[in-house]
Design goal:
Strand content: 25-35%
Shape: globular
Largest sheet: 3 strands, antiparallel
Order of helices and strands: HEEEEEHEE
Strand order of the largest sheet: 1-2-7
Radius of gyration: 19 Å
Distance between the termini: 53 Å
Length: 105
């Protein structure tokens, strides 16, 4: 039994450290005054996400937040996969402006 427990513990330890993130926050601009404009010419705050995997990842339905007590503050829209999917090795910018009429992101 001790041998089995040791193997389970070793497997759990190894599995924990072999997991790698498939997406990374590549860049954050929290006070954009004029460095990068959105499609409407506005200099809103933004976050750039990078897909490190070899498959496309759809962010539709996921959440972003600036509040550690409210993780589901803003939901990335579903049903718009052309705008919310990141191809392998590609980047996606999430604009933080509350102008939902300007697009899903």
């Amino acid at each position: 039994m001790k041998k089995f427990s040791a193997l389970v513990l070793l497997f759990a330890f190894t599995a924990t450290f072999s997991v790698q993130a498939q997406i990374k926050i590549n860049e954050i601009v929290a006070s954009n005054s004029a460095s990068h404009e959105d499609e409407n010419g506005q200099s809103d705050d933004w976050v750039e996400i990078y897909n490190t995997s070899d498959v496309s990842i759809n962010f539709g339905g996921m959440y972003v937040s600036d509040d550690p007590d409210e993780f589901d503050k803003w939901q990335i829209p579903t049903g718009q996969s052309a705008a919310t999917t990141i191809a392998p090795g590609a980047y996606l910018i999430l604009w933080f402006d509350e102008d939902t009429d300007q697009g899903p992101l």
